[in-house]
Amino acid sequence: SNHLYLLESSIRQDGGGMNTDFVESSVEAIASIQRLVERSDSIIRTILDFSRDKTMFNTSFNVRDLNEQVLALVGNVARSKDILIKVTCGDGLNIESDAVALQHILYNLIKNSIDAMKPGGTVKIKYRMEQECLVIRTEDTGEGICRDDLDKIYNPFYTTKSTGQGMGLGLFEVYNLVARLNGQISVDSQPGLGTIFTVRLPVRGKMT
């Protein structure tokens, strides 16, 4: 940043003999580089903060209640895009896990689906118990993910959103939290046919 400042000052002060358009375009280019540097710093700080050891706590909770809490967070975003969220979850689904971690997982999966859809789309969220695991399935009617990109979606920084609309850390966080809860995540997607994420978490699992 200091070097960019010195370079800009030098161009402004010594650019008298230069073409005016060249000086202006050079200053604009430096400003653009500065914005990219600041964004990179923000991303790196976010990565480092996430990477620090975070204590996770097991508690017993009702999955339907937790789902309602998450929907309260994403509800305004969904309504602003006329997105319909359909939930299938029995009243008696109770597990022992880290509720905050699961909130983050659900929030990022649902938000990712909302962002991937045009107005009027639908997100289906289904919960079920299977072999001592809670299975969470999110299905959207979005644009889908091409086969070549499926292996990249959990990478930090990877995003298909426009500049300034996301840093590509949502699915990165989901993947790491699922791993820390000793669970598994899989994705099934085709361009134009939407995306399905399936998460399997132990009903009572020791976190790492």
Report on the architecture of this protein:
- By secondary structure, this protein is of the alpha+beta class.
- It has helices at residues 2-14, 20-51, 63-80, 99-115, 170-180; strands at 59-62, 84-88, 94-97, 122-130, 133-140, 184-189, 195-202.
- The strands form 2 sheets. It has a 5-stranded mixed sheet with strand order 2-4-5-7-6, with helices on one face. It has a two-stranded antiparallel ribbon with strand order 1-3.
- A hairpin with a 2-residue loop joins strand 4 and strand 5 (133-140).
- Helix 4 (99-115) runs antiparallel to helix 5 (170-180).
- Mean pLDDT is 79; it is low at 162-167.
Which descriptors apply to this entry?
208 residues, single chain, two-stranded antiparallel ribbon, five-stranded mixed beta sheet, 5 helices, 7 strands, alpha+beta
